[in-house]
Design brief:
By secondary structure, the chain is α+β, with helices and mostly antiparallel strands. It has four domains: about 120 residues, Nucleotidyltransferase, domain 5; about 35 residues, no CATH class; about 90 residues, Nucleotidyltransferase, domain 5; about 70 residues, Alpha-Beta Complex (Actin, Chain A, domain 4), CATH 3.90.640.10. About 40% of the residues lie in helices and about 30% in strands. The strands form five sheets. It has a five-stranded mixed β-sheet with strand order 3-2-1-9-10, sandwiched between helices. Strands 13-12-11-17-18 form a five-stranded mixed β-sheet, with helices on both faces. The radius of gyration is 21 Å and the shape is flat.
C-alpha cells in the first residue's frame, strides 16, 4: 500500500485514448505527449521474442516484413483482441511518456466504445493495470469526446456527438452528464479502407495494402461526389500476372466505393434522432451535431449529414484528439469523473 501511494505520487496522471488505429496519451499538466499507431511487430527466434517494435516503427513495417516477424494490431473494432499484446503496448507507451521504468504507477483514465460488453470493459481495465497503472477509470468515448469538444455536458440540454474512429462509430446524445442514447457501429475508418481495397481488387484486379487504401481515402475520399475531380496514382500487384502495376483512381470512384459504409454512418445518426425524446431533439436542432474522430475529416461528410438531416454540423479543431483531450480534462475534475465512469 505504501509503495502504491508513493509510486502514484511521483508519477503523472494520464488519459489514454486506446484506439483501434492510434493510441493517444494526455499527461496532466503537459497535454498530449504521445500519438502513435496501435501496432506491434515482433521477431521470434527459437520460440523466444528477440526484438519488438511498437507504434510508428511497427506501422512502417506493415506489409514489408519477412516470415520471422509478425505484425499485430492488439485492438479490433474498438476492443482488445489480444490481451498480451495490448498490455505490452500500453506498458511501452506509459514508460515512454514517463521516460523511466521504475516506480511508474499513474492514475489512468481510458476510453472505450459505448457498445463494449462488461467482459471487454474488464479486459481494458486489466490490460491497463497490467501495464503499470495504479488506478484505472473507464469512460465512454462519446462522453470524453463531448467534453473535449467543449459541449456543456453538465447542463439540462441535449448535445449530440458522433465520434468516427478507426474501428467504431459512436453516436451519443448527452444531457446532465448522462448518456440519453448511445449506439456503436463497427463501420468506421477501417471499414472505409477495406471498401477501397476491395473496390480496387474487384474492378482492376490489383492488390493493394491497407496502408495504401488509407492513403487513398485521405487524399481523394469524399462522402458524396462534387464538382472537383481529383486523381491519384496507385501502385499494387496485378492478380493476373503477378507483376507490379500502376493505375489511376478518381475521387468519384472512391466515393462510389465507400458509399454503402457512409450511408450506414448517416443512417445511425438518423436512428439516434428518431429515438431521441422530442424536447432533446429540439435542442439538437439549435445546437447541431458535433463530428469528432479521424472520420470527421472525410471530405464532404459534414455537408452530407447537414443536407440529409437538416441540422447544423460542427467539426471541432483537431477532431483526431478530441477524445483524449476530453479524458484529460476529467483528470482535473474527479467529482465529474466519478459521475461519468462505470466501476
Amino acid at each position: 500500500m505504501l509503495f502504491d501511494f508513493l509510486a502514484s505520487r511521483i508519477s503523472k496522471d494520464l488519459a489514454i485514448d486506446l484506439g483501434t488505429a492510434n493510441t493517444l496519451i494526455f499527461v496532466r499538466g503537459k497535454g498530449i505527449v504521445l500519438n502513435e499507431p496501435s501496432m506491434l511487430a515482433i521477431r521470434k527466434r527459437d520460440r523466444r521474442t528477440s526484438e519488438i517494435w511498437i507504434g510508428e516503427e511497427a506501422k512502417k513495417m506493415m506489409g514489408r516484413v519477412p516470415g520471422s516477424i509478425e505484425v499485430f494490431r492488439p485492438l479490433s473494432e474498438g476492443v482488445i483482441a489480444n490481451f498480451e499484446m495490448a498490455s505490452l503496448m500500453l506498458k511501452f507507451f506509459i514508460q515512454k511518456v514517463h521516460k523511466r521504468k521504475a516506480l511508474v504507477r499513474p492514475r489512468v483514465i481510458i476510453s472505450v466504445p459505448s457498445g463494449v460488453t462488461p467482459v471487454e470493459r474488464r479486459a481494458v481495465r486489466d490490460s491497463t493495470l497490467s501495464a503499470g497503472a495504479h488506478e484505472v477509470f473507464v469512460v465512454e468515448e462519446a462522453m470524453a469526446a463531448a467534453m473535449g469538444a467543449g459541449l456543456p455536458i453538465t447542463e439540462p440540454t441535449s448535445n449530440m456527438i458522433v465520434d468516427i474512429g478507426g474501428g467504431t462509430t459512436e453516436v451519443a446524445i448527452i444531457s446532465l452528464t448522462g448518456v440519453v442514447y448511445s449506439s456503436s457501429t463497427k463501420i468506421a475508418g477501417d471499414k472505409l479502407d477495406s471498401d477501397i481495397l476491395n473496390y480496387v481488387r474487384k474492378n482492376y484486379s490489383i492488390l493493394i495494402g491497407a496502408a495504401t487504401a488509407e492513403q487513398i481515402k485521405i487524399m481523394i475520399g469524399r462522402a458524396y461526389v462534387d464538382d472537383e475531380v481529383e486523381e491519384i496514382d496507385v501502385k499494387g500487384r496485378d492478380l493476373v500476372d503477378g507483376i507490379p502495376k500502376t493505375i489511376t483512381l478518381t475521387s468519384g470512384e472512391i466515393t462510389h466505393a465507400i458509399m454503402d459504409s457512409v450511408n450506414a454512418i448517416v443512417d445511425s445518426i438518423k436512428l439516434a434522432l428518431e429515438q431521441c425524446p422530442p424536447e432533446l431533439a429540439a435542442d439538437i436542432i439549435d445546437s447541431g451535431i458535433v463530428l469528432t474522430g479521424g472520420g470527421a475529416l472525410l471530405r464532404n461528410l459534414d455537408r452530407r449529414i447537414r443536407r440529409e438531416i437538416g441540422v447544423p454540423v460542427v467539426v471541432p479543431d483537431n477532431p483526431l484528439t478530441t477524445v483524449v483531450r476530453g479524458a484529460g480534462m476529467m483528470l482535473d475534475d474527479l467529482e465529474l469523473l466519478r459521475e461519468v465512469t462505470s466501476a
